[in-house]
Amino acid sequence: MVAGDGSGALAWTTVEEKKVFSCPVFDVSERISRGPDGRTGRFSVIEAHDWATVVPLVRRDDGDYFLMVRQYRHGSDEVSLEFPGGVVEDGEAPYAAAVRELGEETGWASGNIIHAGTVFPNPAIQGNLYHVFLALDPEPYGARNLDEHEIVDALLVPADEVRSMMGTGECRHGLMITALFLAERAASAL
């Protein structure tokens, strides 16, 4: 495999774009683009807000734990075990969204939150970004503040159990696997 030279020789140019569907969570646009070789194509693009997830690592004398949330997901029609996270609101910094989501979904806070990485969730059809943060040693501070349709359990899960479950059962959310990888890499660099 040969890496590109970064010159943009593979980039396509948007010729025309129109919104074809809109809902509260995302918009879908149809884009006509011209390739570097002159051919044109019609592509569907999902436009959504950026997302932020925080991986709360709780270190105790009896071992390490992750503070996680369990909730039903309508797309998969299953309950999912995840790290706290959600949408980065208009005008909100990803870091602020991670702090907010940690508090809203768990009632915990951390004075040591580190940016672990930012990736595209699915660059083939989406342009939004997924921001991952590592929260070290969070502590409970107060009541949760769930969104209108959130029914969420917050729980501590042994870190080794989370690592072994990723990709199976309730831990099949691909973005959570990404979050764990990025958070563990950030933690190992400390």
Describe this structure in words.
It is a single chain. The protein starts with 12 loop residues before the first strand and ends with a helix. By secondary structure, it is α+β, with helices and mostly antiparallel strands. Strands 4, 5, 6, 7, 9, 10 and 12 form a seven-stranded mixed sheet that branches. Helix content is 18%, strand content 42%. The protein has helices at 94-106, 159-165, 174-188; strands at residues 13-22, 27-34, 40-47, 51-60, 63-73, 78-82, 85-87, 108-109, 113-119, 130-136, 139-140, 152-158. The longest helix is centred in the C-terminal third of the chain and has 15 residues, at 174-188. A hairpin with a 5-residue loop joins strand 2 and strand 3. It is elongated.
| Mean pLDDT reading | 94
Which topology of the largest domain does CATH recognise?
Nucleoside Triphosphate Pyrophosphohydrolase
Helix content: 10-25%
CATH architecture of the largest domain: Alpha-Beta Complex
CATH class membership of the largest domain:
Alpha Beta
What is the name of the CATH superfamily of the largest domain? Nucleoside Triphosphate Pyrophosphohydrolase
Tally of distinct domains: 2
Distance from first to last alpha carbon: 33 Å
Uncertain spans:
none
What percent strand?
A: 35-45%
- Total beta strand runs: 12
Helix-and-strand structural type: alpha+beta
